[in-house]
# Entry
Amino acid sequence: MAKQRKPPRYVARPETEVLSRGYDPSLSVGSARPAVFRSSTYVFSTPESAERAFEIALGKVHAVEDENVELIYSRLSHPNAEILEDHLVPLEVGASSAAVFNSGMAAISTLLLTLCRPGSSVVHTVPVYGGTHMLLYQLLETHGIHPIAVNAGDSAGLARAIAEAENLAVVFVESPANPTLRMTDIAAVVAAADKCAERPVVAIDNTFMGPIFQHPLKLGADVCIYSATKYLAGFSDMLGGAVVSADPELVSHLRSTRVMLGNILQPDECWLLDSRLATVSLRMHRQSKNAKRIVDRLVGHPQVSRIHYPSLFDDAEQKRIYAAQCDWPGGIFSLDLGGDKRKAFEFLRRLHITKNAVSLGGMESLACHPATTTHSEMTDDQRDGAGVTQGLVRISVGIENWRDLLREYTDALDEL
Ligand SMILES: Cc1ncc(COP(=O)(O)O)c(C=O)c1O
# Structure
């Protein structure tokens, strides 16, 4: 048998690493792409190996470098999760480890349940995705965890809330915010957290811009959270979630909670998501270019009172944050049709290429009315404060030809 050449000892760029690291073909009978390991349980080579694997899994001892720890049971981990986690790391600048979950909400709830105790508080930006809002106010608050809301982008308000909160466990920032695209200065949040006697964990929901256009770990954040359902998966055909961090200890805690909650991403879904990672940069660039070309031509349409899109920000502070924090404006924009719900519904009714559906980040364009769908759990006051008006339509631009999308939006607006 020919002697295997040793791989070179340099770290390649993300687009290369995502296709080459963390997968050993010899463990998948030489298959160029990983096999799917659908097993729920794994056979131990010896009872001693089983004992050792359990001791390590339960955190009683640490594995030594290069130790071959045997797999136990798929709720703890499985080969496809390990391959996927290895491939997520190079995509997130500054990351060293990742954990995958069966939805974005599973990732967020696992993080908050791991880090918070009764009496803890969580400072969070508003608006946040409706599911995160429900988790904070309908579940965690009833267990004695106090959510403290601050408007996205309000750096002074966030610094004050972070300094004053008692037992602050987590600062949870969604930037850009869903669905107003309002941005929060991540470096300023990290600086405020650094001043706390007990440093809270700074978690950024990076679903809208990451991992390609915004790099929170580079700005000092502790974790990036993803609804992998969106851009990472990219085809609106699966649910998934991920947490990526520069802190392996923190990720290891999350994995322990994941074992108890039983919310690891299943092998088939891991395999599917893994195969999508290599194209996330290509897709996001195309979606961002499409969205920018469209919004630039919708500006000034008489039916559109406002377009929420990073390259169109008029607020000086928002412009500053965007320039400092993001490489490109991304594939999502929201149109405000004069705060008029009827007009928003009529607009949606006239779309054919773009489907009226929640979710975002898929290769096909989707549009929704956040006030009555994704953000319907917020009170009217909360929605008003956050700019989620009744006339707001959120559009996630896909990879179609942008001219066809522009024509459909212009025709629908003209008919209103
Ligand atoms: C910003 C953001 N975070 C988290 C989630 C929740 O993700 P999932 O639906 O995968 O649970 C969503 C879903 O729309 C989202 O938009």
